[in-house]
Amino acid sequence: MGADCRYELAQAAYVKLALHALKHPATAVNGLLVGRLVEPSSSPAVVSVIDAVPLSHHPHHLPLLPTLELALTLVEDHFATQGEGLAVVGYYHANPRCDDTDLPPVAKRVGDHIFRYFPRSAVLLVDNKKLEEAVKGKSRDPVAQARFQIFLKYTFKTF
């Protein structure tokens, strides 16, 4: 089903998802990752994440399938009109608590749903502890951890 992939996260996407998590530190936040498959024939294939689209900071809104379908459709339509071959390539999530490093079941279901449309989809989980350290200037480590579908192998790099 899956294949080896490398994911490149553009600075704009990285900053957007980090700022979304910082703006709402007491609630779970989530959004879509937008990009394209850059080198499908290479091994590993390269998925370039160009942008992040914040969806919600109220986790009870997103689990509703009609809401998710509408968001996916609107984002896909918006980026399709730009003519750059961009599509939804994944999902990001930040938990409301700093010590919570598990991907919640709803985020896994959203990732599975996106996988149906883009088989090389990724799910990123924002590490709130690393985000807090980065804000304080104590760390320069990436604040998002890759949590991909179980059957995907991955390499993750930011640029």
Automatic annotation (TrEMBL):
Pfam families the record matches: UPF0172
InterPro entries: EMC8/9
Organism expressing this protein natively: Sorghum bicolor (Sorghum)
Protein name in the entry: MPN domain-containing protein
GO cellular component: EMC complex
Superkingdom in the source lineage: Eukaryota
Sections of the chain in a coiled coil: none
